[in-house]
Amino acid sequence: MSSEIHPTAIIEDGAEIGEGSVIGPFCIVGPQVRLGAGSKLRSHVVLTGNTSIGPKADIFPFASIGHAPQHLKYKGEDTRLVIGANCLIREHVTMNPGTSQGRFETTIGDNCNFFTAAHVAHDCTVGDNVTIINNVMLAGHCVVGDFATIAGGSGIHQFTRIGHHAYIGGLAAVEGDVIPFGMVLGNRAYLSGLNVIGMKRAGFNREAVRNVRRAYRMLFSDDLTFRENMDEVQAEYPEDPLVQDVLSFIRAGGDRALCFPRHSRPD
Predict the structure, then answer these.
(1) How far apart are the first and last CA of the chain?
(2) In what residue span(s) does the UDP N-acetylglucosamine O-acyltransferase C-terminal domain sit (predicted)?
């Protein structure tokens, strides 16, 4: 099935357009772009740079995808932006490739939703089934786990890790890592509990949710030091996969400190 390209669109030599794609009016597709089959560029979309987009992308007007990273040390190196299948990219979204100071690549998984004016900076890694709402600012080198949701107007500090199934509340200013299933709120953001609604929507059963909730209370209890609390949780739930996900995330560490509840601080 051939692609449908509006006569006002500019498809530069070298660009690869997948079968069955629809390129709307006044779109520009650069020479290194690879656009997957069945994708739709609504109008006024710019795709450029060394950018690969999986099949069935739906990209709305004035999205700017693949332009040079907002990094003062970037000198034109051939870095990449890789976007998975079936992603929704709404108006004015910006996504930048990686840098030589980072991974050389920005990576976005499958089935992701990016709403109006969201920004994904250089060297980020975004998992599958992630939803990023309007005006979210995702700074460089961030890692966002599968099924995470970042609500409108939130700012995520560079090098921050957000665990899978986490929820970031609207207008949050996130400076620390967010544990899997965690929910953070506020400026500066603090851990306010677990994303229980998200866990239920994802199909986790009642026992799984109950175990993670109890492990959360144990982890952030003020009775012992945080390290001692981790040991207690490990002993209590040595075989629970979700609890072990949380512990593994904490043990792995990162460039940012961990988000804690307001009542609790690391020892």
Answers:
(1) 61
(2) 177-257
Query: Which fold does the domain 200-252 belong to in CATH?
Result: Udp N-acetylglucosamine O-acyltransferase; Domain 2 (1.20.1180)
Nearest to 165 by CA among 184, 176, 149: 149
CATH 2.160.10.10 domain locations along the chain: 4-141
Give the pTM. Answer: 0.96
pLDDT of 139-186, one tens digit each? 999 999 999 999 999 999 999 999 999 999 999 999 999 999 999 999
pLDDT at 203: 98
Residue with token string 């990273």: 69
Buried b (16+ CB within 10 A) or exposed e, 133-160: bbbbbbbbbbbbbbbbbbbbbbbbbbbb
Per-residue confidence (pLDDT) for residue 263, from 0 to 100: 77
Contacts with 189 (C-beta within 8 Å, 6 or more apart), sequence order? 168, 169, 172, 173, 174, 175, 176, 178, 259
Q: How far is it, in rounded angstroms, from Cα 214 to Cα 218?
A: 6
Tell me if 167 sits within 8 A of 148, measured CB to CB.
yes
Provide the percentage of residues in the chain whose pLDDT is more than 90: 97
- The rounded distance, in Å, linking the Cα atoms of 69 and 55 is 24
Average predicted confidence (pLDDT) for the chain: 97
Q: Active-site residues: which are they?
A: 122-123, 140
The domain defined by 4-141 carries CATH number 3.40.50.720: no
Domain with CATH 1.20.1180.10 in the chain: 200-252
Q: Residues 6 or more apart from 71 whose CB is under 8 A from it?
A: 99, 101, 122, 140
